[in-house]
Amino acid sequence: MSSASGANNGDGKEAALFEQRLSKIGEVRAALGQLSGKAALYCSDASIARYLVARNWEVKKATKMLKKTLKWRSEYKPDEIRWDEIANEAATGKIYRTDYFDKSGRSILVMRPGVQNTKKAKGQIRYLVYCMENAILNLPHDQSQMVWLIDFAGFSLSNISLHVTKLTADVLQGHYPERLGVAILYNAPKFFESFWKIASPILEPKTFNKVKFVYPDRPETNKIMEDLFNMEELESAFGGKNQATFNINDYAARMREDDIKMPLFWSPENSALASEPYVMVNKDMAQEGSSGLKSEETASEKREETDTESENREETESESERAEIDSVSGKREETVAVSDKREEKETESENGKVAATSSNGVELTSLPGEGKGITPAD
Predict the structure, then answer these.
(1) What is the CB neighbour count within 10 angstroms for residue 301?
(2) pLDDT tens column, 18-28
(3) Alpha helix (H) ranges present in 33-108?
(4) In terms of DSSP bridges, do strands 95-97 and 211-214 run parallel, antiparallel, or are they unpaired?
(5) Which residues partner with 148 through β-bridges?
(6) What are the two backbone dihedrals, phi and then psi, of residue 348, each rounded to the nearest 5 degrees?
(7) 120 within 8 A of 159, measured Cβ to Cβ
(8) Which end of the chain is more exposed for a tag (fewer CB within 10 A), N or C?
(9) Splitting the chain (378 residues) into consecutive groups of 10 residues, what average pLDDT does each group show?
(10) Burial letters for 84-95: b for 16+ Cβ neighbours within 10 Å, e otherwise?
(11) DSSP string, 232-295
(12) Per residue in 334-370, is it b (16+ CB within 10 Å) or e — as a string?
């Protein structure tokens, strides 16, 4: 077979695959029924495709997932959160959107859990949702994903919360599928490895594969940063040359300007949002294995069963988080001495519950930092 005929054959397969996926997008749209208002704007072809990708192009599962998001958006109203409502959460710069993008044009959210300044999970998650909506608002027209840059400076055991981690995963995976391109965990402390092993089963395989550990003293991981970012723009805290630091007053002004833009973004006149087309950017998605699908479905189903329980857990959050910290500390066999009281509480902690289900999640075969670099975004 000539190279020309081989190329034509490849183009033919790609075209057939594209048509097949458009057909599935149409099936989901038909299953949703007549939509109006913001729901109609939200369900563009590209948006529906993100849910199909998250469920390996299975129409029924994607439809079920999308219906839950539409219900959540109608009740939670994420696009109506405004700066003044969550400004206290932002005061320390624990999450903020940078004024520069990565080399692919993706919005960047910087996260600094070491400067956490509030106790209630409800407020923390609401601020995260605000930041997600803001990052999406500022995406270029040819980009649909964002980058998370997580800085562990000042991070300690007191900053660990499996409860908040689970709620974060639920929101990200359940209502913002395929919005995360890559998450960089920068200079995570040694003790975080124990928590990561406990928490990782919460993540679906697709999300898990987007998490990359980077350490400034490991050249092989520093290359991840150089490949992703313009080092002249990247903040010095992440090895870049930008000496600028977070300023709450400047950031508040930026966010208030974006708050004015948000209603326009979700107005019926914004045909660009409603007509956002599906673009096939990764042909390999059609060849994903069934083993990943099985583990992903199992994790998703278990999260659905515990959604109500999670929402009602906030009143006992402080006690639960102390138990979580004890459980993580108990895993630090070489660095922390564990008291008998903590060992007695460990089986009662939420960490123990999650660890018991780890066989249904992702099996870790290496410690953080030993991966193979950047997995292409789905």
Answers:
(1) 10
(2) 999 999 999 99
(3) 37-42, 45-54, 59-76, 83-90
(4) unpaired
(5) 109, 183
(6) -90, -10
(7) no
(8) N
(9) 58 91 97 95 96 97 98 98 98 97 97 96 97 97 94 92 93 97 96 89 92 94 95 96 96 98 93 87 45 40 44 45 46 38 42 38 35 36
(10) eebeebbebbbb
(11) TTSBGGGT-SB-----HHHHHHHHHHHHHHHHHHTSTT-HHHHTPPP----GGGGG--HHHHHH
(12) eeeeeeeebeebbeebbbbebbeebeebbeeeeebee
Q: Are strands 180-186 and 146-151 parallel, antiparallel or unpaired?
A: parallel
In this structure, which amino acid lies at residue 110? V
What phi, psi does 295 have (nearest 5°)?
A: -65, -35
| Structural domains of the chain in order of their starting residue, each with its CATH number | 18-76 (1.10.8), 81-265 (3.40.525.10)
Contact 150, 186 (CB under 8 A): yes
Q: Is 280 left (phi over 0), alpha (psi -120 to 50) or beta?
A: beta
Q: What does the block give as tokens for 45?
A: 């072809």
Q: Which two tokens stand for residue 312?
A: 């009602």
What mean pLDDT, rounded, does the chain reach? 80
- Contacts (Cβ under 8 Å, ≥6 apart) of 119: 317, 318
Do 54 and 26 meet the contact criterion of CB atoms below 8 Å apart?
Answer: no
- 153-157: list long-range contacts, CB under 8 Å, 24+ apart: 153/112, 153/114, 153/187, 153/237, 154/112, 154/114, 154/115, 155/113, 155/114, 155/188, 155/189, 155/192, 156/114, 157/191, 157/325, 157/328, 157/329
Torsion of CA 181, 165, 172, 281, to 10 degrees: 20
Evaluate if pTM is beyond 0.90: no
Coil vs helix vs strand at 95: strand
